[in-house]
Every structure is written in structure tokens, then in C-alpha cells.
Amino acid sequence: MNSRLLRLTNAAVIVGFLALPALVQAQISEYQEKQWLDTPAATSHIGNLTGNAHAATEPYRRYCTVCHGELGDGNGESAYWFDTPLFFKPRDFTTAVFKCRSTPTGTLPTDEDIYDSIGRGLDRSNMPPWNTFSAQMRADLVAWIKHYSPRWQTEKPGEPIVIPPEPEVTAERIKAGQDVFNRVQCWKCHGVEGRGNGPSASTLQDDQGRPILPYNFAEGGRFKCGTSDADLYKIFMTGLDGTPMPSFSDNIKPEEAWDLVFFLRTLQPFHTKAKELAKGLNLKPINPNAPPPSQ
Amino acid sequence: MRMWAQSHLCQKQRMFSLLAAAFALAFLIIGTSQSASAIPAFARKYGLRCSACHESWPMLNFFGQKFKDNGYQLMNDRDAPIWQNPGYWPVTFRIIPIWHRVSTAQVATDQSATGEQKITQSGFDLSGLDFHTGGTLDKNISFYVLPSSDATASFHFETVMARLDNIGGSSWFNIKLGKFELDNLLSEKRILTLTGNGGVYQLYHFIPQGDGNIWGQMGDNQLGLEWLGHSANDRTRVSAALLSSNDGQVGLPYGAESYSGFFTASQAFDFGKLGVSRFGAYAMVGEAPTIWLTSGGVGIPGSGTGNKGFSREGFVGQIYFGEHADVTVVTQHGEDSAWFGQGYGDFVDNPVAGTNFLNGYGVTSLPAGSRNPTWNGVLVEPHYVISPQAIILARWETIRMSQQSTPGTASNLGNISTYTVGARFNPFMTPRAGFAYHAEYNWLHQDGTGVVPGTNINTSELLAGFDFDF
Known about the structure:
The complex is a heterodimer of chains A (295) and B (470). Chain A is mostly helical and 295 residues long. Chain A folds into 2 domains: 36-154, Cytochrome Bc1 Complex, Chain D, domain 2; 171-281, Cytochrome Bc1 Complex, Chain D, domain 2, CATH 1.10.760. Chain A contains 10 helices and 2 strands, in the order αββααααααααα. Chain B has 2 domains: 1-32; 89-127 and 188-219 and 230-469, Porin (Beta Barrel). In chain B, 11% of the residues lie in helices and 43% in strands. The radius of gyration of chain B is 25 Å and the shape is globular.
């Protein structure tokens, strides 16, 4: 064997040796996922619907793979091109970490939470509202999503938080809400006028280390996880897992949470009762540097 | 012996080489196959595969229909161009190189004793070039411009329109103005077939024999103003369009004041594991001229008066049987004024005596017994979607005259039956470009319209090609 051929052979062996672990890793991962397809976790239950992961094979490939990837790891062929922070990167289903939940922070979402996210879409991302799907297809896709992470094999979804009935909005409640906004320092990210320009805004990163922007209330866009007052309540009481938006359930009492909801509504450019009441109050943006009120 | 061995060895080597080449080709095809296609301008913008919006490109699925109904917006608050990379330009080209074999019976010839002969031709060919550009100008303001050529690169504007969507924040108020495809629930512009007769819906262009009405072709893009309303999830859709009765021709060439309207309403229902199916109805009603001023015997464009009526109405069902099978059914009942039925109509384009079109100037009455021509038709198009990358399709269309304009005319004169079968396979589907291997066969039969009176026309076409856009 001449020396050139020998060098080539050696190089091929080294490259092969280095590539092998990556290849094995990918095969194991895919193999595991295939095993999980046949477990009870790869089903979903939404109302009277039962979703089956196997039934979602083609729909996932048709609609979802391009962003979320064949392996559900958020590395579809288009994922690379979504520029953060203007567009969010696709969700990595293998971590089973979801922004929009009715369950406490750190827990798995309910099947309904994922089902609702598929139908609602996620604003300011490339996840559109897939509300043209049949309910059954959405339920099947929920089941499919659950087969990607080992967490669904061992953990149960969290218990949905209890949202007390929405009280009547009053001027006092709006003022109290502003106090909560100040106390728990929402302004640090969202800004004193809710414009998403707080002092920490430019430093925020998601759990993958990618830049992320806080919500700008003044733009009036839809919230990521719904549009209703109850959805807004849920967002800051459960937090948006995977983002810097924490759960405030330990810092805000349920009745205070409604006050905050009413105040946050005054920051949006809509004609609402809260906004009208706020005008009467002549509310000024908070001043974080002001000395605490004297006792 | 040695020579035989060498020869045998060579044969074996050749076989191995061929096998190796076949494997390499198969490997290349499989290896480059990802998953399936859209107007790549939109796919590029949103990073979605064509299959997200198209059952098989270019036919829309329900999500694609919603995207279109929302003014080419995903409604993700990032639809306006201000959010796009400044280098993004929403342009797509589509052209189709093909081979086809066309066989036409009853072609008039001087060399045949009967005056007609069957002619069969085959060869490589091109479609025209479509130059799609469309998308949002701002949030809820969008446009679509489609310069389209024939195979010799002679261009016309197939579509030119701007639209305002979600006016007042309501999905029920959307307006488009310009030249556009009518809101046909089964879109001819997104047809999956390419042959001369199979590449259009006969139902959308039917004109009875001798009839002078060219304005009722609901498959042609028309000039006008359309209002569209739809529910947030697009399950409920209604639309109404006011159109110039000029079959989409620019320059106000026909009637002085002739308009038509196109109306649709549909509702989609969730049938559980079968999927979402849609049912609807449409109607096109209008008036168009029959009387023309002339100069030197030639019709003066825009001078048409003496409007007479026409109508087309029917039902549409898009029925899904799970992920893989679906069928679309379109019915039509059509009626033209007896004036059209007797040949009065487009005298501007055909002012020569002996054509179907007559000038009604000075004509006060029609031949005794003249009646409104009426007909009924149905179109059935089943699909089998093997995967997001492959589809098998078929179509059967039939149109039957129910009343001829002139009493005593053969009751079946002009009846059409046509069958089409085809398959499309997308070897890849990325958000960048679309490509399909396409194969198709069409056969069309029309009663009584052969060059020899009383004989029928039969044509068939076999086509294979590469349908791509980029």
C-alpha cells in the first residue's frame, strides 16, 4: 500500500470514528422517540376527544416539521432563518417546556393547554393559528408532541391554577394594580409605560441563551397565550416557562392579580372601561426612582 | 472459451455498472427527497413548506385558503413587510417544460374524402411563463400582480389587484379591486392538471353551440370589486363581486354599461376523524351587450348596448375522508338569454359574417320559437394524497344541454364529457422552491360539433413534464 493511500485510509478511519458517536446519538434518540409513540403518554384527552400520536404522523410532517424538526427539537429547516428577537425560535418539544400553560411554573402543561396553543398560534412568531384543523387532528398533534420528551413518560401535568371570578373593574383596583406593577417590578422589563423598554429589556435571553423582547403593551398586539383578562391573569401567575417572564404566584395574591390585570389593560391602546377609569384617575407612569412614600 | 469468459465478464461488469448506477440514482432521489411545495414567495417569507398551504401545490388546503382570505397573512403580527429582511422580494416564476402527445379527431383537411381526418402529434413543448408577485404592502393591505405569457412569451396581465383586509378589525370586511380570480371554491387557477382540455374546468367556460355569450366564463379572471367576509377560522365564507361584463379584458371594450355579479357562500363542518369538509353555493348573474355601433362594418369597442341576461349557479362540496382521500363536486345550471343563444354577442372580436357572433343592431325580434339555452353540468374530482409529496387525481366532467335555443336542434348538440387522470410527485419540499414530476392523461368528447355535420369530436392528450417554480 503506498503512503498516499495509507494516509487517506487513516483519515477516513479517524473521520468515521469521530462521526460515529454523533450518528449513534441520533439513532438512539430517534429510536427512543419511536418507542414512546406506543406508550400511554403519547395520547391526549381533550374533552370528549382522544388524540392518537400515530394519527398525527402525516399532519406533523405536512405542517410542523419545517420548523419543529423531524425530531421535535425545534431544529427544522426553517428554524435557522428566524431572527430573534423579532421572531421566536420554534419550540423544542424534547424539553417539554411550554410558555402557555394553565399549570404552575416548572410543571407540564395540560393537554388542553397545548391544544389551545395550536389553535391560537403564537403572535410575533411564525406559529400561526392552526384553527382550520379539525378538533381531532389537533388532539392527535397534541399526542404526537408528547411523544418527543421523556418527561411525559414519568411526570403528570401540573394542576391548573385556580382563577377566581373576575371582579368589577374600579378606579381603586386600577390604582392598586399600578402599585403591584411597581412593587413586583414589572417595569424593569416592560417599562414604566409598558412599552417593553424597561432597563432590563435589552439584556433578556430565553433559556437557550437567545435574545428575547418583553411584551410591548402600547403596541396592542395579542398576548402570546390568549386575549382575555383571564389569559392575562394566567400569564403572570404561571409565568412563561423558557423565557425570563417568571411566575408571580408567590408574590401576588389572587385579588391583587386582578388589580394588576386591570392596570395592564390601561397600558393598551384600546377603548376599555379600565382605560376610561384610568383617565379619570389621571394616572401618571410610576417613577421607580422616587423615594418610598412616608409612613 | 476465454473470449466467451471475457465477454461474459464484460456483460457482468456492465450489469454491475448498470446496477450501481441505478442504486446511485435511487440513492440520489431518495437522499434528496425531503418532505413537499407553495408559491415559494410566501413560503420563503414565512419559512413554511408548501404543504402547509397546499394539499398539493398549487391547490390550496383549508389553511392556505384562510391565509389567502386573510390577505396573504398568517395573522401572527409579523405579516407586514417592515418585519421582513429588506432583501426579501415576493416574486415567483413558474414554467412547465413538457412532452405531450395530442390526438384530435375531426380536423378539417382538403386531403380527406370526408373533409376531416384524425391528427396525432407529439413532441416537447413549453407552457407559458407565470410571473407571480404578491404579498403584503402593510398590515392588512396586500396586492397580487401576475404577468402571464403564452408559450411564445406574449404577455398579458392575468391578475392585478390590491386588497384591504380586516377593515375595522373585522374579518367580515375585506375588499379587493382589480382583475382577479372569482371566488370559486374550486379554483381553476390552482388546478392540478395541465393538458389542454384537462387543464381547465369545462364547467367554468362552457358556451352552447352557436351561443354568442363569452362573458359568463367564471374560470376567467375578471375585472371588478369583491367583498369577502369570513369567520376567524374561515369555516364560514361569503363573498360578492361586482364585475364589468368584459371577461377580464382591459380597455372597456364591450358594453357601454354592462355588469355582472358573482356570489358565493360556504360553510365548513368538522366531521371528526374524517376531517373538515366544506359545502357551498355560487351564482353568477349578469348582463352583456348584443347591439353594436359599427364603423366600416366593424364593431366599435365600448359601444355595446342592448344588454341581455345570463346566469350560472351551482353547488360545491369539498369532502374529506381522512388524511388521504377527498373529493370535490361542483354542479352548474346555466342559462343564457335567447339573444345570446341565437348568436348575438361579441361582435367586436368577431365582426365577420359567418362567425357565431351577430350584431343585434336594428334587429327587433328573434326567429320564432327561439328560447333561452339552458344546460346542467357536474364535475367530480377525487384525490388520493399518498403523502404531502405525492398525489393521484382524477376528474370527470359532463355537461348536458337541457334546452337548445333553436327548436329542432339535436338535444345533445354541444354536450361535453371529459375524463382526466394524473399524478404529481414532489421530490423535495422546502420553503424555497417547488418542483413536481407530473404525468396526466385527458380524453374529451363533444357531441355533434365535428366538421362533418352530426359527427362528434374526440380528443385525447398524454402529457408528462416538470412543473416547477422558483
